[in-house]
Amino acid sequence: MVLNFLKPTYLVESVYDLSVDELKKHNIKAVLTDLDNTLLAWNNPEGTPELHEWLKETKEAGIEVIVVSNNTWQRVEKAVGDLGVGYVAWSLKPLPRGIHQVLKEHGFKKDEVLMVGDQMLTDVWAAHLAGVKSVLVKRLIESDMWQTWVNRFIENQAKKIIYKNQEPVWHDSLAKAVSTKEEQELHDGK
Asked: What does the pLDDT average to over 6-30?
């Protein structure tokens, strides 16, 4: 398919639906995550209780959460400084630069990380270019920063082609997303 580079490995409703048990089962040692509308709503810098609980659980399980963002250092530091997570700013997604930086600095293998984000044109494409699995999540809130509007328009057109004018099927856990992907691959003869 022409747009395979934009097709996520998995569709999961929220980054918070990536449970520690499921991440461990798939040998995931780090969740690389976009910042705005993925980890935090762009207009809620403190985050939700759900975010803080998820970060606590991943930290206790020894799974690192690292933000890979196109935002400036100042913006990312201000947003995640109190959350106790690592970060890469100015990552230049869809270029894989930020993901490669994390892999090199932390010594992770490509199959030990997931790149999670709410945009196909930046997060998913960067994951594909870096050779890591991608998780597309629904954006936390419907509004976006103005810089994202063009991406959303292009992404909506790409989704129509990738999913053949059907709504994508979102899952409330990684286990369900993995199961569905394996079933689809069997159906497609891969």
From this structure: 94
